[in-house]
Amino acid sequence: MKKMLLPAALAVITACSTGPEKPMDTPKDKLVQQLFSWADSSHIAYGHQDDLAYGHAWQVTDWENDSLERSDVKAVSGRYPMVMGFDLGDIEHAADKNLDGVPFGLIRKAALKHIERGGVVTFSWHPDNIVTGGDAWDISSDQVVKAILPGGEKHAEFRVWLQRAADFIESLGEVSVIFRPWHEHSASWFWWGQDLCTADEYRELFRMTWLYFVKERGLTNLLWCYSPNGPFTPESYMERYPGDEFVDILGADFYEFVGPDGLQESGARFAGVLRDMLTKMTVLGQEHHKLIALSETGLEGIPDANWWMQVLYPAIKDYSVSYVLTWRNAHDRAGHFYGPWEGYPGEADFKAFAQLEQIVLL
Ligand code: BMA
Q1: Is the CB of 99 under 6 A from ligand 1?
Q2: pLDDT tens digit string along 9-33?
Q3: Fewer Cβ within 10 Å of end Cβ, the chain: N or C?
Q4: What's the predicted TM-score (pTM) here?
Q5: Region of residue 222 (left: phi > 0; alpha: psi -120 to 50; beta: else)
Q6: Is any ligand 1 atom within 6 A of the Cβ of residue 253?
Q7: Continuous segment of H or E residues that includes residue 297
Q8: In degrees to the nearest 10, what's the CA dihedral of 16, 20, 25, 31?
Q9: Helical spans, DSSP H, in the chain
């Protein structure tokens, strides 16, 4: 597949600046240029969720005094992942720790440390259900999005949740990070999902969030990532797109699941669908002058010892995808890992993947 050429990158960088008086050197401009330079030169940055906070069978405990040098990815490959994801779930309650028990103080410190080392940070957010009091996965009401939009009975209360999330982002200071709210909305497992609100309501939710962060709070250094779940058609991918003004990265989440026909077939199926998704996203990225990214992926427990080199890499290698992020290595949930760790059976395979010239680690 032909690579995306430089003019697309220049068009985006230009579009991201507000006028001739503004030099293209804001933290956001630099991050956009960095991501485009990988995509345009056929490099793919590798990312891992929560990588500095914990890993398989360990976690940072005394975070204030910890230099945050431990990483499962580094233990296997000698380098940190270039992209690191963290989740803001429970920030809406002004909690000390996120939904997975990671202190927000640690998340802030780890994000800033990673940026200081030269890495890229992305935030997702699994906020609770403000109507039912349940979590992000509580889909018992299809009135939640409607209720939090302007005019809805929970709007004022939800603005406080937005304020708390924005306060956290603001506390990072003058750095640029990727923000990826309202993800996997084309599926129906979160209260903001496909069957839980209309397309108009979803778009309004995304825009309301953007307007609050960017216009009300002046948080102009965020790169906004839109990330439906795969598979999709170009039409279903764009069905709830909030608009070019509100999005910087066309992302997608897509995981492999092992079916009854076994590992080999599920790997082949996953890779085939992923290639199809990336082909469509490449076209959409060119049309809308946006970066593309595989914002979440993985195979839980990685039962295939050759998954990185024989499934993931062949599926992504022909695409100008800026980064690919695998989900977290839980320290407290047996078998819930998506990245490598020292001693796991696919260690050599991950090492080979990380050593590829095309794959960027830190
Ligand atoms: C999910 C799982 C959960 C976790 C959530 C948010 O995919 O990993 O255990 O709470 O992401 O990080």
Answers
A1: yes
A2: 434 443 444 444 555 799 999 999 9
A3: N
A4: 0.94
A5: beta
A6: no
A7: strand 291-299
A8: 10
A9: 6-16, 27-40, 72-77, 104-116, 144-148, 155-170, 199-210, 234-238, 263-288, 307, 313-316, 347-355
